[in-house]
Design brief:
heterodimer, A: about 250 residues, alpha/beta, 6-stranded mixed beta sheet, 9 helices, 10 strands, about 25% strand, B: mainly alpha, 3-stranded antiparallel beta sheet
């Protein structure tokens, strides 16, 4: 479980996060939703320590990440899988080497064990046999899936996905949503997904946090969000006429 | 702050206007845009404007100095992170071997071409300059050897490689930064500065002295080829010249310089690449800055080391 308490973060005079508190539960897909610039990505970067919070606490199973030293943070980070919006695959490494990278750095597995694990991860994301391809040879959707494969390579306790559906066709998008959901349940991970894709919200939103201009405006699940009376949430959810018609 | 700068600019503009259009008339007043201004008021205004100009210049100097100190501090803090214990020595070792190949073997061609032409041109120029004078012919070999070993091979090669290696390192690390690959390393718990920069520094410090020794050999050899085929001087005089009054410390001095240059031309571009922010445009800017600053530092180090070792 990850808990954030009263997080405040500013970049100069721009107050990006204003006193946000959330509890991200284990074994559930926790969604951070909101319009562009509402602070979703900044929250995840604060949680994993890429940005330091101005005030507030980030707790991993009750342990305060903000006050940890470099080595303690490294220990926590080895339990984190992070899928970036742009995949962030290492250009100079093949798909297989990208997935094996964290294992090579931190585990004592043999070459055979690492290869088996890489193959398993690739199978899970539906990309078997792409081991020797390089990131430049992959499509956007394939890169995202390899990003997930790399994120789960070390059996993480915490999985972060930053806009996993952006720029993808509906079929691939659904495939990735299902993958995230099934991995979360299977490995009992605490998963945090940053998205503004309403389809993902409805499909996989076990717990949803709605951010508006740096503040948490609403929290609930994928059923409650369709019935909420909160004005900002409604205008976000029902921005699409299709969903409006569907709910009617 | 913005208002202060605007005010200063207005005063500066005012000063220029006064200086350009102000004309002194007979009644101790200044005619400005058709209106008379008493001379003491005009002088007082000019003094004020000069004062603000000085103040602006002072602020600029302080700002630049602070900026320089900020970058210097951040550079040394980055180096502190670079030289920490590697997570897995075997991986770093493989990276160092790769970098030795890329930075060293990959630069062998350009080093050889530059060295051959450099030695040949020095020989021709020296021979042309002493032709018909009382200066002995062996001076050509002596001059070529001294110039190539002490200065051209270590410094010019370092400057050329600052361009080649420097832009490569800055753009590679900069691209990794803007595509979040460095963030990915950090989140995995990898010491990103160590993983990305340490192998490059170690490889360059290891391989550059070899490149410089090759450059020395090729530079002096090309001078011999010139003496052999151009007819400008007797090859035996050239051979005598290159062995005349040879002090082995010259090579040591050149190699010591090279070690410092190698460190500078890898660590400075790495710094610029590592702290790139933005997109592709900023990667290009970082790459340019890296080459400019590493070249300046090479020249600066050249002066300081020469002063320390040869005087």
């Amino acid at each position: 479980m990850i808990e954030i308490k009263n997080i405040v973060k500013s970049f100069g005079s721009n107050h990006v996060l204003k006193d946000i508190s959330c509890v991200f539960e284990k074994g559930k897909t926790n969604l951070l939703i909101g319009a562009s610039g509402s602070g979703k990505t900044t929250i995840t970067k604060c949680i994993v320590g890429l940005h330091e919070v101005d005030s507030g606490e980030v707790l991993y199973n009750g342990k305060n990440f903000s006050t940890m030293n470099v080595n303690q943070r490294k220990e926590i980070r080895r339990e984190i899988g992070f899928m970036f919006q742009g995949s962030a695959l290492f250009d100079s490494l093949s798909v297989e080497d990208n997935i094996k990278f964290p294992m090579q750095m931190f585990s004592k597995q043999t070459a055979k064990e690492m290869l088996d694990r890489a193959n398993y991860c690739l199978e899970r994301v539906g990309l078997p046999g792409t081991n020797k391809l390089f990131p430049s040879e992959l499509s956007g959707g394939m890169k995202k899936r390899v990003g997930i494969a790399r994120a789960i390579a070390m059996n993480p306790k915490y999985l972060f996905c930053d806009e996993p559906n952006s720029g993808l066709d509906p079929q691939t998008s659904i495939l990735i949503d299902e993958l995230i959901k099934s991995l979360t349940v299977e490995f009992d991970m605490t998963t945090i997904v940053v998205t503004h894709d309403m389809n993902s919200v409805i499909e996989i939103g076990d717990k949803i946090f709605f951010l508006f201009k740096g503040e948490k405006k609403w929290e609930g699940n994928n059923k409650e969000i369709l019935k909420t009376e909160e004005e900002e949430v409604r205008s976000f959810v029902y921005a699409s006429k299709f969903i409006k018609e569907l709910v009617k | 702050m913005v208002w202060a700068v605007t005010l200063i600019c207005l005063f500066k503009y005012g000063a220029r206007t006064y200086q350009k259009s102000g004309k002194k008339n007979k009644n101790n007043s200044v005619l400005l845009h058709g209106s008379k201004i008493p001379i003491h008021i005009f002088t007082l205004n000019c003094l004020w404007v000069s004062f603000f100009q000085l103040l602006t210049a002072g602020f600029n100097v302080i700002f630049e100095a602070m900026n320089f100190l900020y970058h210097l501090g951040r550079y040394f803090m980055l180096l502190g992170k670079v030289f920490t214990k590697p997570e897995k020595a075997s991986i770093y070792w493989n990276l160092i071997i790769d970098e030795i190949y890329e930075l060293g073997i990959g630069s062998l061609g350009i080093t050889a071409i530059i060295s051959l032409f450099m030695g040949a041109v020095i020989t021709i120029q020296t021979a042309a300059n002493i032709e018909g004078s009382w200066v002995p012919a062996y001076t050509v070999g002596y001059t070529t050897r001294e110039a190539v070993i002490k200065e051209f091979s270590p410094t010019i090669i370092a400057l050329i490689l600052a361009g080649k290696i420097g832009s490569n390192i800055a753009s590679k690390i900069g691209s990794m930064r803007v595509t979040e690959q460095i963030d990915a390393l950090v989140i995995m718990g990898v010491n990103a500065p160590g993983y990305l920069i340490l192998p490059k520094i170690v490889a360059a410090v290891f391989i550059l002295p070899f490149l410089v020794v090759i450059s020395m050999f090729l530079g002096v050899s090309s001078g011999y080829l010139v003496s052999l085929y151009s007819g400008l001087l007797d090859p035996s005089e050239y051979i005598y010249g290159i062995s005349y009054d040879f002090i082995p410390f010259s090579v040591t001095y050149a190699l010591i310089k090279t070690l410092f240059f190698a460190f500078a031309i890898t660590s400075i571009p790495a710094y610029h690449g590592f702290y790139t922010s933005g997109g592709a445009l900023e990667v290009g800017k970082s790459s340019t800055q890296a080459v400019v600053y590493s070249s300046i530092v090479v020249l600066l180090l050249n002066y300081v080391i020469t002063q320390l070792l040869l005087i």
